[in-house]
Specification:
24 strands; globular; Immunoglobulin-like; homodimer; alpha+beta; six-stranded mixed β-sheet
Chain lengths: 628, 628
Amino acid sequence: MEANRKEITFDKVNITGGFWKEKQDLFREKTIGAVYDRFEETGRFEALKCSWKEGMPFKPHIFWESDVTKWIEGAAYFLQKERDSSLEEKIDELVERMANYQDENGYLNVYFTVVEPEARFTRRTDHELYCAGHLIEGAIAYANATGKTKLLDIAEKYVDLIDRVFREEHSAAFDTPGHEEIELALFKLYEYTGKEKYRKLAEYFIDKRGCSSRDATYDFADQEHMQSHQPVRMQKTAEGHSVRALYLYSAMADQARITGEEQLKESCKTLFENITKKRMYITGGIGSTHRGESFTFDYDLPEYTAYSETCASIALALFCRRMWLLDVDGKYADCAERAIYNTALAGISLSGDKFFYENPLAADPERNAFNESRAEGLREHLPILQRVKVFDCSCCPPNILRLTGSIGDFMYSASEDTIYAHCYMEADAKIPLGEKEITLSQKTGYPYEGDIRLATDTEGDYTIAMRIPSWSGQADIVINGAPAEYELRKGYAYLKRHWKTGDEIRLSLSMQVKLWQANPKVITSCGKAAVTRGPLVYCVEGIDQQTDCICDIRISRRSAFEVQREKLDEENTLVTLKTKGFVREKSQELYVDEPLEQTEIQVKLIPYFAWANRGVSSMKVWLLEKES
Amino acid sequence: MEANRKEITFDKVNITGGFWKEKQDLFREKTIGAVYDRFEETGRFEALKCSWKEGMPFKPHIFWESDVTKWIEGAAYFLQKERDSSLEEKIDELVERMANYQDENGYLNVYFTVVEPEARFTRRTDHELYCAGHLIEGAIAYANATGKTKLLDIAEKYVDLIDRVFREEHSAAFDTPGHEEIELALFKLYEYTGKEKYRKLAEYFIDKRGCSSRDATYDFADQEHMQSHQPVRMQKTAEGHSVRALYLYSAMADQARITGEEQLKESCKTLFENITKKRMYITGGIGSTHRGESFTFDYDLPEYTAYSETCASIALALFCRRMWLLDVDGKYADCAERAIYNTALAGISLSGDKFFYENPLAADPERNAFNESRAEGLREHLPILQRVKVFDCSCCPPNILRLTGSIGDFMYSASEDTIYAHCYMEADAKIPLGEKEITLSQKTGYPYEGDIRLATDTEGDYTIAMRIPSWSGQADIVINGAPAEYELRKGYAYLKRHWKTGDEIRLSLSMQVKLWQANPKVITSCGKAAVTRGPLVYCVEGIDQQTDCICDIRISRRSAFEVQREKLDEENTLVTLKTKGFVREKSQELYVDEPLEQTEIQVKLIPYFAWANRGVSSMKVWLLEKES
């Protein structure tokens, strides 16, 4: 049995430039404050004063606390790198409010304090444990960043209550969380504090899942919705609410790593395969339908109505990162990058203050406009086509904040003698390896450019395993200017040698534009191709095209693609693609028995994550592929 | 201004053989009884005893009477050709029940007699006038077929009340019907009885529509749903509930013909153009969504979720037939045939006793199975994939019965000196033309064969205008073995001569298989083609194919099509098409960056109307078109 790798968290990594530096600067300057302001305006912070009474506005919601603590967690990741007293004051004030309404016995939830205090721990569907999970994660992050442990004390006190109620007394009306999250948070708390009881509670929740007759679900849903249709080790396909599912699978991967349990590890691998081979959009989006925000069935990946929630892709990335600790295979990082660079980043505007919850793979403004024109009772659910500042259920904005703040988590892991470089970013790192600490410096224009230079400042015998993304073909690796010898195994090039200070690896990934076909069983993608370059999926937006029928655009894999760094608008520069395409001529007829003539046009593609930043426009990822 | 043509109704026509003789025999032997039995079982006939009390089963429904009178109408069309005392006994018994509960003042509706008598004429949405319309049509049909006028007396007595309440007293809570139908029925009653008041009431309802502040709609819907968003003459696009819309437009066409009003005629032409150039499936289906059973927006023609109600296509055919009386243009009969031969006929099983309400252009059994496996609150509305014996809202079964019984209505019309042959069927006819009566005999294997032989037994100077369908290309017409001289105008070949007894026209239509493209604005059909032969749209069913990925089948317009009359199953023979197709090879991967190899397969197509007669199978009308 192969030993697991240890995670190298973002606190060991400093993003120094490139793509993610720009994002982190934007998030620090704009997103943290924008999310805070929206939460302030919508009463989420005011609620923590616990002064709401019937008849007052801003009635607290059962999951509002999770919005608050996710924002704290996200903000803390930025504070970890750069303290900010004014930001800390805000957080300290929120922590103070929480301390004030925490029950003597440790209980903490505004809704169940001011609205329905008698209903605590009676309804599995009511997100109490989900909120507790995010409280834990926020508390750890803030303690880690600032050394301030007040929130952590609050969290631990609450977890102690939960432990007693659920694991000892069984005095709640249900056994396992309706919305998973606390499980992975408890493992994190266990690893942060070293206290066994947290690990045991996490394992209890995971092992008990699907085995309790007391675990109800919503009236409108089935047990699959909450992944409690079977014991977790029997689950072979990703089912139900996709965010819940991926938080569960992430915790299962934690448990497999911590306990070394092979069966659970195999379950995680099986679920990963089901997702990535049958139930995932090429953008790394998961959850094909808004009905239950859920997975559907194999190969069901509709374009226009893709739910593909921002949070679900973030959760998928979290799962992938855990999987590569269990199993060295480049497919996990490939998948994490798909999810991060495409769906998760599409979840936020380039301006850093507006958000998508759903991330469809095609947009038809005419359908949305018609839908909005109808009486309410005749409308269908459609993804919105412009990002908004806040949602009623506003989980995604703070989630993208915490992902970006901790993006360095995705760079490295380490075994006894090997450093694994998973996702490439421009950053310095100090990585514990056995007794040593290895100092690395990475320079790269990734994801737009395929050159990665990784220099070490630490002499010694160790291995650096560089991930070769599956889309890149043959890897070209040079060390100090000379072709490197390496062993290629499952998507990693193992460079084993006696490293000297200043040694530099130069990895050149082919950034060739690729056209992808979907499996013939994906009925909406037959006859079509999606375009990628590096880890980025590209799309066409109507605003850029020489036709208003973007669904009729045909592209060819034999045509050249012009790759160009250019301005998208006043603020944003990115890499666009241009190629030759064909569209049929306009017709007054609805049906014609002679094929319409095709005209050549120039087709411009932009990264999928950048769509919908220039007003409402049609959009499409899957384009007709011209075979001839 | 061109004079309008007179309709030649089916009572002037006897179907003697071929496609429609088979259908009529089947309907006479099976469908009339099957619909009767289902209505009997579901309490629709029992309800007419008006003995229902709170707590009893089979609570009468507001539109049950329309099911009964539509069944009577359909049955009467068969009685017109062949009296049947046992069938008449059943009808007489129903008429007796209706006579018994008809109010002194003429009012007739079971629901508003036994359930909510106080609510008569208070809710526009409650189908009272719709039921009255079908009562009128059933009564005329039964009187015409049998000479028995009791039902007609009932209908006229009720209409007199309606006339007083709506046109004189305005004592109802609304002004115009929520579900149109009575308008065209009133014109029919006017033409049958010659009584002006019925015409005036019909015109009142049509002219008042969209002009009344008292005309409410459903809470869940908008005024478009009932075509009362504007005065009818201002309506340029087909909106709302598609059956209601087409019944209204049919009545508008009646009014334009009867009154000679040009503006109304132009409105009808505008609406016809909007439907057929922008809002109609290639199968003649209309109404793209189940939400409000309604039209949506231009070029919105999704395949899998097409609502395309059977009744809507029947109503479209009724509208077309009225339009060709107003305007000589082959496009109306082209459209009527599309609707009849494809969607309307798909509405009934080949066995004659099971029905579709919705007629999608593609079927994905996996989606339906998944959907049915979910908790009810997570399900989406999907068309069913197997016909059923009866619906809760069972308008379609008796509607297809009355269409088939009166299919001869679609054969001819006549002006002073010209007989127009619109839709071809094997039938004898006696057509009043000026002072004369022209005896015609038509022999044809239509819609499977393109040869039509039309013989006259009446000597004289007159014109026979033979429709040349738009799909047939150049017409080949021979009279008594010699090439005929004719003038071709707007889809009709005018054969003017001194006809002698025994003269025979032989029209040969090209039955070449055609591949049609949809307008590039139809986003779901880009890159695809639909196959037709003659008036029939073809489809592939999974059960017949050498692949289980029918969405991946590519066909080419350069490939030959083998046309073959063959058995579909033990009972049914029809004309199938076979051609070369290509599908990609199977893959274990979800996404591949090298195109999957394509394999040649034989693709078998069957007429769309015959789908879903051999168990649940995937189905598709629009297939990928291979350009190379």
